[in-house]
Write a structure and sequence with these properties.
heterodimer; A: 267 residues; mainly alpha; 11 helices; 85% helix; flat; B: 267 residues; alpha/beta; six-stranded mixed sheet; four-stranded antiparallel sheet; 8 helices; 32% helix; globular
């Protein structure tokens, strides 16, 4: 996308270029001003109707806590970050490897796909306590939950991606007398990358959910633990700030995956 | 043709048989796609294959190229089995869809056959022309770095032709390669293909559903009939070489057209 965009920009005279930039700025300013307007309404609503802070804090209260409790927020951010990222890598790697096995052996697929579907049908909230019992209150259980939540969408997408090779491409490979491993490395794997990245984008946000759910069940650090703690202590501004940080973590991971996709997939 | 080794089948007058099909049949389950096909194709010939849809035109190419096995009868290419010919890269295939790998640029796509089979000693008889020169031959000098999605349909098919030529095949199999292109591009590529044929001295089997294209390109038109697919006739096209677009206006050309149209209606 970026190459074609620059090509178009290069072809046009400079005043068009600035028009292009202005249009992007305009497109960006609409959602931004909507968000600002909503924050203002929220702030005014809370102040006018005198809503107690422990029920619904004003944006300014949340901003205050962001500033005053920043070290606390960060102390709880890093464990969740580590769990999410570790879960992301483990879950997706497992999914990719199993997808490769599925594509190369019908028997393996028949044997294990129903089990994968079954595991996926168990609500993550139901399986989380079991995993915390097995792995204890440390990071491991959270990583496993985050990995589990990433696993299924990536498995399904990766299998589809590896199978997305056209019959003619297989005929071409056959005419070139390509071996199974050559077909895999030169044709199947690159073909699957767009599918893989769609799945990784989903996983980049769900792994954070997995880690936080794990922390709810039993943890003394992490954003999930902080959410529970601030709720029970009626520290609503801190709760809101934690929720914002959690969503920021998801955005961070999502953007990283998107940048990696842009760099790797140029077709 | 020059540089032919002594192992090739030679006829009494010194003619070389590029492909020889004897009493070959192809079945797909209970369906007989081709029945009792016997044909000898001389090296350097340009055959076009014409026939009603479903008569096995594509199957014929797939039979010659070791993609589908004969149920009975045999096929030999330059005196070898089709498998041996495949491993020796004696033939190349051009599909209707260019079947380029979208993540490889034009040059890398042309180089693909040279990267496959290295470890298994598959003969990579790189021709006199480098991949770069082949791209120049098909008129794509300067577009070596373009990705397939940046090229037009006609350009993509030209990359596919360059890729087919990279191992200097003695037999070029083309399955409606210009079927999806517009008339102008098609005319242009027809002329270019005739040039390439002359310059490389390769043997061409070219499937088409266009009567004028079959006459314009072919020295011989192989007419197939359907249910089951059999050879109906082989028509020699006695028109001067090199051929030019103006030939289409020639009365002789038009009489071939009506002759073939009649034959096709009888199928």
């Amino acid at each position: 996308m970026s190459t074609s965009e620059t090509a178009i920009a290069d072809a046009k005279p400079s005043h068009h270029l600035s028009g292009h930039t202005a249009k992007r700025l305009y497109n960006f300013s609409i959602p931004l001003s909507t968000a600002v307007a909503l924050l203002v309404i929220w702030q005014l609503g809370v102040r006018i109707f005198n809503v107690p802070t422990y029920i619904a804090p004003a944006p300014s209260d949340v901003a205050d806590v962001f500033y005053s409790e920043f070290p606390l927020l960060m102390r709880n951010f890093w464990p969740t970050f580590m769990e999410s990222v570790a879960g992301f890598f483990i879950g997706n790697l497992a999914a990719i490897l199993i997808a490769v096995a599925f594509v190369h052996s019908r028997l393996v697929e028949r044997a294990f796909f129903p089990i994968a579907v079954f595991i996926n049908t168990i609500p993550i909230l139901a399986i989380a306590p079991i995993l915390v019992l097995i792995f204890g209150p440390g990071m491991t259980a959270k990583i496993v939950i985050a990995a589990l939540i990433c696993f299924f969408p990536t498995l399904v997408n990766m299998v589809r991606g590896l199978q997305s090779v056209s019959p003619e491409a297989f005929e071409l490979a056959r005419i070139l007398s390509a071996s199974k491993s050559e077909v895999f490395w030169k044709i199947r794997l690159p073909s699957s990358l767009p599918f893989l990245f769609s799945a990784l984008k989903i996983a980049s946000t769900t792994c954070v959910i997995g880690a936080i759910v794990g922390e709810w069940i039993g943890a003394n650090v992490g954003l999930g633990a902080l959410i529970i703690e601030s709720t029970f202590n009626f520290r609503a501004p801190l709760l809101y700030a934690t929720v914002f940080i959690s969503s920021g973590l998801s955005v961070l991971l999502f953007v990283s995956v998107t940048i990696a996709e842009k760099l790797i997939i140029r077709w | 043709m020059n540089g032919v080794d002594g192992s090739l089948t030679q006829k009494q007058e010194g003619r070389i048989i590029a492909a020889s099909i004897s009493e070959a049949s192809v079945n797909f389950g209970a369906f007989t796609a081709l029945q009792d096909i016997s044909l000898e194709i001389e090296a350097g010939d340009f055959y076009t294959i014409l026939g009603p849809s479903g008569c096995g035109k594509s199957t014929m190419l797939r039979l010659v190229s070791d993609l589908v096995p004969p149920a009975s009868g045999s096929v030999e290419i330059l005196g070898k089995s089709t498998e041996a010919a495949r491993l020796a890269r004696e033939f190349a295939f051009v599909f209707q869809d260019p079947t380029l790998l979208p993540w490889r640029n034009a040059l890398k796509n042309v180089e693909l056959p040279l990267e496959i089979g290295r470890k298994r000693n598959i003969k990579l008889s790189t021709g006199d022309r480098t991949p770069r020169e082949l791209l120049e031959l098909v008129g794509l000098k300067g577009r070596e770095d373009a990705l397939p999605h940046e090229l037009s349909g006609g350009m993509r098919q030209r990359v596919a032709i360059a890729r087919a030529l990279v191992c200097q095949p003695k037999l070029l199999l083309m399955d409606e390669p210009f079927g999806a292109l517009d008339e102008m591009t098609r005319d242009h590529l027809n002329l270019q293909l005739l040039d390439i044929w002359k310059e490389t001295g390769t043997t061409i089997l070219f499937v088409t559903h266009s009567i004028p294209e079959a006459i314009f390109l072919g020295q011989k038109v192989l007419m197939l009939k359907a249910n089951p697919g059999r050879i109906k006739d082989v028509i020699n096209i006695d028109l001067p070489m090199p051929r030019e677009i103006a030939l289409r206006e020639d009365p002789a050309f038009n009489s071939y057209c009506s002759q073939l149209r009649k034959l096709l209606e009888d199928c």
